[in-house]
Design goal:
Bound molecules: zinc ion
Structural class: alpha+beta
Largest sheet: 5 strands, antiparallel
Radius of gyration: 30 Å
Number of helices: 8
Strand content: 5-15%
Helix content: 40-55%
Length: 270
């Protein structure tokens, strides 16, 4: 009888031990599972937090770009024309004038301060200004679309004060200005307008860091004069749409010439 009791006790103890071990194992399993769940939740909130700054995704097709008809078989062929002046990817530099040189965009819209740009670029710029403002910075448009005839007068004035050669370095020849596409704008803030000082202001640093999120490039970066043909202009930004600006930002490509494999354009053809 004693042995049987001891035997029962042993069985009971063993059962309790097994149950406790099982409970511990289940608890460990559940707590182990909860960590990756928490991590995923954190990732989601991080994504949600950063997406607050990004403007609503804008299709380049609806952004006024026209499809490139050339060489669809080549994988490197740009999705949109780099020659058609209506295209968001048009490349204008000292070797690539607008065609025709007297081109006038059709859909100009206000960006404030009496300036206009093509409608998709204007919408993106105003979104960028609003985002900067929510970061406590004030940025405004100094000069948007400029017509062929306006550029004639700008260049004539520059030539009169600087001489013809220096004028070519300081202001574009009529028909060669990115401003004439309606996709480019000079911005200013923190008391610095259309001058190199803008690049070292909080507003200028914000533009350099964030313009790509809204589809813009700082078109004439420091150190790329031999490729772009222009001195560093931290105030001159060019709309290309978020698809291209994001790709170039992620790849660290600074100029449209390099992005599209175009020759450097340091000077006008002689
Ligand atoms: Zn400019």
């Amino acid at each position: 009888v004693r042995l049987t009791r001891r035997g029962r006790l042993l069985v009971t103890l063993t059962t309790v031990t097994v149950l406790v071990l099982l409970a511990l194992a289940v608890t460990a399993l559940l707590s182990g599972r909860s960590h990756p769940t928490a991590a995923r939740a954190a990732d989601r909130s991080a994504v949600g937090g950063s997406s607050g700054r990004t403007p609503s995704s804008r299709s380049p097709a609806t952004a006024g770009g026209s499809a490139a008809p050339s060489t669809p078989s080549s994988p490197a062929a740009p999705q949109y024309s780099i020659s058609d002046p209506t295209s968001i990817w048009v490349v204008v530099n000292k070797l690539r004038p607008l065609q025709p040189k007297t081109y006038v965009p059709a859909d100009l819209a206000s960006v404030g301060d009496g300036q206009v740009m093509r409608a998709p670029a204007a919408g993106a710029l105003l979104s960028m200004f609003a985002a900067a403002e929510s970061d406590g910075l004030s940025i405004h448009a100094d000069s948007g679309y400029r017509s062929y005839t306006y550029q004639v007068s700008v260049h004539d004035r520059a030539a009169a004060t600087l001489g013809a050669v220096a004028a070519d370095g300081a202001s574009a020849l009529p028909g060669y200005s990115e401003h004439q596409t309606g996709w480019a704008v000079d911005v200013g803030g923190d008391g610095c307008d259309i001058a190199v000082c803008f690049g070292s202001t909080p507003a200028g640093r914000w533009v350099a860091a964030n313009a790509w999120r809204f589809g813009f490039l700082v078109r004439y970066p420091a150190g790329e004069e031999a490729i772009t043909g222009y001195e560093y202009e931290p105030w001159h930004i060019r709309y290309v749409g978020t698809e291209l600006s994001t790709r170039m930002h992620d790849a660290g490509v600074l100029t449209l010439e390099q992005e599209f494999g175009l020759p450097p354009a340091p000077n006008y053809p002689s």
